[in-house]
Amino acid sequence: MAFWRSKKNKEEVAAGQKSTTSSEVAEKRPESELETDSTESQAGGTLPQSQSETSASTSSTTSPEPKPSSGGLFSKMRGALSKTRQALSTDIRDLFKAEGTLVDDEFLKELFSRLIRTDMGVASAEAIRDEVATRLRARVVSLEEVLETITQQTQTMLAQESTEIQYTDSGPTVILVVGVNGSGKTTSIGKLANHLHQSGRKVVLGAGDTFRAAAVEQLTVWAGRIGCEIVTGKPEADPASVAYQTVDKAVAIGADIAIIDTAGRLQTQVNLMQQLEKIRRVVEKKIDTAPHEVLLVLDATAGQNAISQAQGFSDAAGCTGIVLAKLDGSAKGGVILPIREKFQLPVKFVGLGEGVDDIAAFNAAAFAKALFAQ
Questions:
Q1: Beta carbons of 374 and 345 less than 8 angstroms apart
Q2: Are 272 and 263 in contact (CB under 8 A)?
Q3: Residue 265: per-residue pLDDT
Q4: Distance from C-alpha of 324 to C-alpha of 319, rounded to nearest angstrom
Q5: Which residues have CB under 8 Å from 214's CB, separation 6+?
Q6: How confident is the model over 254-291, as pLDDT tens digits?
């Protein structure tokens, strides 16, 4: 991930002065002077251009510049799932002859093995295979007939009641965002904040990943470009303190939503998972019903490893929903099926690309159709 800074800003920082406000658009630097962010930033998305801010609580009025629409939800889903779909379609297509193929035990065995390659897991692949067997066994069928059956079964398996954020009736809705380093967490927060800001809601961001300076800087840039306030803390400050200050700020300015970043933690680090529990307790002291949502960001490119991530964070943080990031970079988009089956957590949003607008509320029908569309 790279973003531009102005020469003036670099001179001011070197002199120990405060950086300019985020409403000033940075001038482009020579490519040789680009700064490289963390692994998460490189894989998670492209930041809008802006200067960083270092104050503990800053605000900005700069509005984002939306990209031209690339089509409807299905079109965006189809583009994001292209790698998974191409791999899957090629594998399944190889099972068919021009005149059609008989659905027998050998065919069903081969179909199962090829579904597994998308990391959808044994249980999900078995359910799809069994549905094909129930509908089409002993028939000579075309590729299109099989894909239609697979699509319908996948949609059924992904069905969920709602993808909506559970907003509180009064005061700010508090959203904690958790996930391991490199999952695309901070980038997903920026996209989500922009999505909610564009819907007319007043958003405050909390840069609670205080152990990683790049994450604070990255989120500050997002806040400046989106036009929302942000609360930051000193390097390695207590994340729970930043979380408390963020909720306090949201209440004070009458914000609709407070989105709090948390440090990217490995799910095996018990002491750090306990810190997540501390953050929950702290925000609850300010608003007794908070947090109202705890969103777990999962890296779609991680495949089955995303399952263990979901288990650890779900237990410690009480997750209420999932954001599936980097969907456009994965050939293993089928991992969403075992995640839904095992945890029964709703997938609330999916990351569809690198731009600020490349996030969408999850839609089971559009996802299933895009996964298998020819």
A1: no
A2: yes
A3: 67
A4: 14
A5: 37, 38, 41
A6: 999 999 999 876 555 677 778 888 999 999 999 999 99
Tokens for 159?
Answer: 């069905």
Greatest pairwise CA separation for the chain in angstroms: 78
Asked whether the beta carbons of 178 and 185 are under 8 A apart, the reply is yes
Record the pTM: 0.77
**Which structure tokens are listed for 96?**
């068919």
Query: Which residues of the chain, if any, have pLDDT below 70?
Result: 1-71, 265-269, 374
Dihedral-angle region of residue 138 (phi above 0 means left; psi in -120 to 50 means alpha; beta otherwise): left
Tokens of 300: 């779609």
Cis peptide preceding 291, ω within 30 of 0: yes
The 3-class secondary structure across the chain, one letter per residue, is CCCCCCHHHHHHHHCCCCCCCCCCCCCCCCHHHCCCCCHHHHHHCCCCCCCCCCCCEECCCCCCCCCCCCCCHHHHHHHHCHHHHHHHHHHHHCCCCCCCEECCHHHHHHHHHHHHCCCCCHHHHHHHHHHHHHHHCCCEECHHHHHHHHHHHHHHHHCCCCCCCCCCCCCCEEEEEECCCCCCHHHHHHHHHHHHHHCCCCEEEECCCCCCHHHHHHHHHHHHHHCCEEECCCCCCCHHHHHHHHHHHHHHHCCCEEEEECCCCCCCCHHHHHHHHHHHHHHHHHCCCCCCEEEEEEEHHHCCHHHHHHHHHHHHHCCCEEEEECHHHCCCHHHHHHHHHHHCCCEEEEECCCCCCCEEECCHHHHHHHHHCC
Beta carbons within 8 Å of 203's beta carbon, 6+ residues apart: 193, 196, 197, 226, 228, 229, 255, 256, 257, 258, 259
Tokens 């583009």 found at: 79
With 0-12 CB in 10 A as exposed, 13-18 as middle and 19+ as buried, what is 218? buried
Cα separation of 51 and 59, whole Å?
A: 13
**What is the reported pLDDT for 130?**
97
> Nearest CA to 2 among 162, 148, 218?
218
